[in-house]
Design goal:
The complex is a heterotrimer of chains A (404), B (251) and C (403).
Chain A lengths: L1 H11 L1 H38 L5 E5 L2 H4 L6 E2 L2 H8 L4 E15 L4 E9 L1 H8 L5 E4 L8 E5 H7 L6 E7 L5 E12 L4 H4 L2 E5 H8 L4 E2 L1 E6 L2 H15 L3 E5 H4 L1 H39 L1 H9 L4 H36 L2 E2 L2 H9 L5 E2 L5 H18 L1 H7 L4 H6 L1
Parallel strand pairs in A: 4-9, 6-8
Antiparallel strand pairs in A: 1-11, 1-12, 2-10, 3-4, 3-7, 3-11, 5-8, 6-9, 7-8, 13-14
Helix pairs in contact in A: 1-13, 2-11, 2-13, 2-15, 13-15, 13-16
Chain B lengths: L3 H9 L13 H9 L6 E11 L4 E11 L3 E8 L7 E5 L2 E6 L4 E4 L16 H5 L4 H4 E11 L2 E10 L9 E7 L5 E7 L5 E13 L2 E11 L6 E10 L11 H4 L4
Antiparallel strand pairs in B: 1-2, 1-13, 2-3, 3-4, 4-5, 5-6, 7-8, 8-9, 9-10, 10-11, 11-12, 12-13
Chain C lengths: L1 H12 L1 H38 L5 E4 L3 H4 L9 H9 L4 E15 L4 E9 L1 H7 L6 E4 L9 E5 H7 L6 E7 L5 E12 L4 H6 E5 H8 L7 E6 L5 H11 L4 E4 H4 L3 H36 L2 H9 L4 H37 L1 E2 L5 H4 L4 E2 L5 H27 L3 H6 L2
Parallel strand pairs in C: 3-8, 5-7
Antiparallel strand pairs in C: 1-9, 1-10, 2-3, 2-6, 2-9, 4-7, 5-8, 6-7, 11-12
Helix pairs in contact in C: 1-13, 2-11, 2-13, 2-15, 11-15, 13-15
Classes of the chains: A alpha+beta (404), B mainly beta (251), C alpha+beta (403).
Chain lengths: 404, 251, 403
């Protein structure tokens, strides 16, 4: 009975209902938008730092991350490849040999990070070929190298020049070789640009005398979370000689940055909720005030106050649920708009961001979890707010109300 | 692993001085053991063996040196590195690599890097021994090492000396002043490296230990071994030998 | 005149309605101001964390020094520069350093390291590294040749407090020099890379090793307000054309981009809050006015013309704003000041890892208060326009009948 009354009441005064409903829907949209943009920014940051080049997960020989020497290397055996391929969430994997050497011209020498890569895999998965700003990309049989723009500038060399590389190889062998520069890479991050040298795997093997061993396999997945799950799974499957790390372990600073930003975000969410909550509260207060006569009459004709309270509360809760529900649908196009047409950073910053390989925009996230979460929160908040008017109703004095 | 004190010994050759007084002071013992002849020249062939838990590597070197200012080292083995030359002129080190036909001057920032994958650093090649003046020497007595009676000397690092050791204990042969054994301690008196020499014989007209080993105290199955296969102190070498251009021609 | 009186009385007549509107305005104002203040405090905190340990607000070098840290790139007129800086009231502290890229050795390890010669008392004002000691002291001991290095370095070199290390470097003549130092302090920052490569000794000791009579490699400046960095740097660039003067934004890769990106991101966040504010005010006003259909109908029935009704509603809005806005301003000012003193403790975050202070001090400048207040006022009026116009369309008779 009460439910029927409650339901009818809602539709009796369409305008009032609409206003309250809109308030709740809007609350959902705004809080969702805020969360969505925050998460979108994090996703973007993760993608650019850990995504394309370094991969959301990596496999090394056990102990490699600690000492980073060629000694802790392993062979890419077919069984290992099979284990990786058995995981459908892996979009691609890139074997690499990471080492250190001096890059030298006749007069200038500089320390550099030398990476032996599977030329085809890098092209497919990390799009290394797209970074070539001058010259050409490598072919697997080449005895040539790609170097970063910063390094090329420092050594005063360009495409077609030859440089000597000198370093320490496997088992203490000297690593020495003369290589022509086939292409120059744009890396954005000046640090990387000044240090990186890429070699085809075969040539790197000769240079470092690694006899077919590699130091790293970078694994590419769709989402960062997949990388974490993958690292867990592989860690179990691969056994003691390997270590599998996910991007959070590979980039701990990034994680801290994001987590600390999240907490700051809570302050903003708090402020937002204060405003929204009051909006809802105010609407309810005014609705209550407007219906005082009605309530007075109901009590006067015999309705128990408790029932009245429950009925009104029922109305509000229903509105909350409806509002939250519709709110999700309303929020979606808004977030989608900012996903498709993200907020640009402005020209100057866009340029810099692109150099870093980062997106120069604020992009919203379309993770459904966000939408649902916010809707639920708003729904609960407004239901809780509704308790206040409910308590007030318990004290209704029929005569006074009817007089108003 | 620090074997700086030994470097000049290794590459300049050990010498036994003629006269020995009845009861020499610790300082003079050290001096005689360390003494290189300024102006004298050494030509030597050395085999270096690097032993590690998982692998062993051997290198052959032909070495020329004159005093402490000049030295030239040619790698004769293994084939991969054959023909590589290191030239030290005063404080500078040059590197000739035939496989890439490049002469590289080692920048100061590379001085701490390992030389040719050994336990030596590039800096070790350049640095001069300071044992005499940076330590205070005390004669502790006599002990027998490797079948030879030796003076046992304790050398404690002086307060302001730029050395990493706390103290060095060395056993120097009474007859020929050959350093038979030495222990290197850090300032907490923990043993860090042990040096042993053996196969004392006559080479190039002098009594020397033709084989020397260094082993770090805290690592198992790890040592570096130097062995002289030939030594010549008499053939004169002119200063012009030690030039950058000559690096390419030396054999 | 009458209208004004009526409008004013109307406000106090319907307490609930007025309460809601006034509070919405006040709260909205608080939200806008506080969010903005929080953002400002946050930026201060972030910037401080980023620059206080390693780079400070501004640095001056000989051009080319930062490429390879060659000892010969000395600022010769350092005294003149420092004097000039000290007289600048925007500058809080100045410190100079001599830097050497050389080799550090212990009994067990040799590796490259950047040794920084500092004057501890001056350095403390420009960098907070001395607060990051985990063992020992920042040059307070009487050791003759002290060195302060990082925990990472100590671990890698297998040394501890009191250990001796030898540093080898090239002096200005190109000769190699070595000297021994004793560990008197061990520090740890959140930046492993920095820690591994950096150690500190007294300025005079490096000076001697370099065989320099005067001059320094780096002059670091700490300003009163980080936002002054660019203008101050521009000024000194002009003054000392032969030197390289850089603000913190350009001293560390990516800082400029990151801070600008954060700025925009924060504008968006605050924008959303303001949108919420707008909507709440709008909705509230809408409900407030629309709830009065009976009353308005009554007024029109007894002869009030539409224009007057409209003006009456607008006056009510203005009056409510005039009550709400000052209250809002007061609450905002109060919360900003109180939290500005005590700070908002965000230690739930893992700020310590990044070397951040986990306490944010909101701060707001006067003109922002004014801006937000005006914004809210305008919003309130605009928000009440629509319902006011709607109210006018009512037919008095129907209005009276409405329940």
């Amino acid at each position: 009975m009460i439910r029927k009354l409650a339901w009818r009441n809602i539709w009796r005064n369409k305008r009032r209902t609409l206003i309250t409903l809109t308030m709740i829907i809007f609350a959902v949209v705004l809080s969702t938008l805020m969360m969505s943009i925050k998460e979108g920014v994090y996703e973007s940051m993760i993608k650019s730092s850990a995504g394309d080049y370094s991969g959301y997960a990596q496999i090394h020989a056990k102990g490699y991350w600690e000492d980073r020497t060629l000694e802790t290397s392993f062979t890419l055996e077919p069984e290992l490849e099979k284990v990786i391929q058995n995981h459908p969430e892996v979009n691609g994997y890139m074997p690499r040999v990471d080492g250190f050497a001096l890059a030298a011209t006749d007069s200038i020498t500089k320390g550099s990070m030398v990476v032996g890569v599977d030329v085809e895999a890098e092209k497919k998965y990390s799009h290394l070929d797209e970074r070539v700003s001058d010259g050409e990309y490598l072919s697997p049989e080449d005895d040539a190298i790609l170097i970063g723009e910063g390094l090329a500038e420092y050594l005063k060399v360009g495409v077609g020049d030859t440089i000597v590389m000198l370093g320490s190889g496997y088992h203490g062998m000297t690593a020495v070789g003369k290589y022509g520069i086939k292409g120059i890479l744009n890396f954005g991050s000046p640090e990387l640009s000044k240090q990186l040298v890429f070699l085809p795997m075969r040539a790197a093997d000769v240079f470092f005398a690694t006899c077919g061993q590699i130091t790293t396999i970078a694994l590419k997945t769709d989402k960062p979370e997949d990388g974490i799950a993958l690292a867990d799974a592989l860690g179990g499957e691969l056994g003691e000689e390997y270590e599998v790390m996910d991007w959070t372990e590979l980039n701990p600073d990034l994680v801290t940055l994001i987590e600390s930003d999240r907490v700051e975000g809570y302050v903003f969410m708090f402020i937002l909720y204060m405003v929204i909550s009051f909006g809802i509260f105010g609407t309810m207060l005014m609705m209550m005030a407007e219906r005082r006569r009605e309530f007075g009459v109901l009590v006067a004709v015999g309705m128990k106050r408790a029932k009245l309270a429950r009925m009104v509360w029922g109305e509000i809760v229903t509105l909350s649920i409806l509002g939250a529900f519709f709110g999700i649908f309303a929020a979606f196009p808004v977030c989608w708009y900012f996903f498709k047409y993200p907020i640009s950073y402005g020209e100057e910053i866009s340029k810099m961001a692109e150099e870093y390989g980062m997106e120069a925009v604020l992009r919203a996230s379309l993770d459904p979890g966000i939408f649902i979460q916010q809707a639920i929160v708003v729904g609960i908040v407004s239901s809780l707010i509704a308790l206040y008017p409910m308590f007030k109703l318990l004290k209704v004095n029929a005569v006074e109300e009817m007089r108003s | 692993m620090k074997i700086r004190t030994l470097v000049v010994i290794v590459f300049a050759g050990l010498v036994a001085m003629a006269a020995s007084t009845a009861d020499p002071t610790a300082d003079s013992i050290i001096k005689k053991s360390q003494d290189k002849f300024t102006g004298a020249q050494t030509t030597a062939s050395i085999t270096i063996t690097i032993q590690r838990p998982k692998w062993t590597r051997t290198m052959g070197i032909k070495s020329w040196s004159k005093g402490t200012k000049f030295s030239m080292n040619l790698i004769t083995a293994p084939a991969r590195d054959k023909g590589t030359v290191f030239l030290k002129r005063d404080k500078e080190v040059w590197n000739w690599i035939p496989s890439v036909e490049r002469i590289i001057k080692l920048p100061p920032s590379m001085m701490s890097q390992s030389w040719m994958g050994t336990d030596l650093t590039n800096d070790d090649l350049v640095r001069e021994s300071s044992v005499e003046k940076d330590f205070k020497h005390t004669l502790l007595g006599k002990e027998t090492v490797g079948g030879r009676e030796c003076y046992k000397i304790q050398s404690v690092a002086k307060e302001e000396a730029a050395v990493v050791w706390g103290k060095i204990v060395s056993w120097i042969d009474v007859k020929d002043y050959i350093q038979m054994k030495a222990q290197f301690f850090d300032e907490d008196n923990e043993l860090v490296n042990t040096f042993n020499s053996m196969n004392v014989k006559m080479m190039g007209g002098k009594m020397i230990a033709s084989k020397m080993e260094i082993a770090p105290a805290d690592k198992k199955n790890q040592k570096t071994i130097f062995e002289y296969t030939s030594l010549d102190f008499t053939t004169p070498i002119s200063d012009d030998f030690f030039t950058v251009q000559n690096m390419k021609r030396v054999k | 005149m009458m209208l004004l009186k009526v409008a004013w009385k109307n406000i106090w007549r319907n307490k609930v309605r007025s309460f809601v509107v006034i509070t919405a305005l006040a709260l909205g104002l608080w939200a806008g101001v506080f969010a903005g203040a929080f953002v400002k405090g946050m930026m201060q905190s972030k910037v401080k964390a980023l620059v206080h340990t390693e780079i400070s607000h501004m640095q001056i070098h000989e051009p080319g020094f930062r490429d390879e840290y060659q000892g010969t790139y000395v600022i010769e007129n350092n005294d003149a520069v420092i004097q000039s800086l000290q007289q600048d009231e925007r500058v809080e502290a100045v410190s100079e350093r001599l830097i050497s890229m050389g080799m550090l050795q212990s009994a067990r390890k040799t590796s490259a390291l950047r040794l920084v010669g500092v004057n501890p008392e001056l350095e403390k004002k420009v960098s907070n590294l001395h607060e990051m000691l985990v063992e020992g002291s920042y040059f307070e001991s009487k050791v003759k040749r002290p060195i302060v290095l990082s925990q990472k370095t100590a671990e890698e070199y297998d040394i501890k407090m009191g250990s001796k290390v030898v540093f080898t470097m090239q002096d200005i003549h190109g000769d190699m020099k070595s000297a021994v130092y004793k560990v008197v302090g061990i520090y740890k920052t959140s930046n492993n890379m920095y820690d591994k490569m950096t150690a500190f000794v007294p300025f005079e000791l490096i000076q001697k090793m370099y065989d320099l009579d005067q001059g320094s490699h780096e002059i670091a400046v700490w300003l009163g307000d980080h936002e002054n960095a660019e203008p101050v740097a521009a000024d000194y660039s002009e003054k000392f054309k032969e030197l390289e003067v850089l603000p913190w934004l350009d001293l560390s890769l990516g800082l400029r981009m990151m801070t600008s990106a954060i700025d925009i991101y924060l504008y968006v966040i605050v924008g959303i809050i303001l949108a919420a504010l707008l909507f709440v005010v709008l909705n509230t006003m809408l409900m407030a006015v629309l709830e009065r259909t009976r009353e308005i109908g009554m007024l029109m029935a007894i002869g009030m013309d539409k224009a007057r009704v409209f003006r009456m509603i607008m006056y009510e809005t203005i009056f409510m704003s005039m009550v709400g806005v000052p209250i809002g301003l007061f609450i905002s000012w109060l919360s900003v000041t109180v939290f500005g003193q005590t700070g908002i403790d965000l230690s739930a975050a893992e700020y310590e890892n990044l070397g951040y202070a986990s306490i944010i001090y909101p701060r707001m400048d006067f003109q922002s208060y004014v801006v937000v207040a005006i914004m809210v006022l305008v919003m309130a009026c605009v928000a009440s326009l629509y319902p006011a116009i709607k109210a006018l369309r009512l037919k008095p008779v129907e209005a009276i009948r409405k329940v």
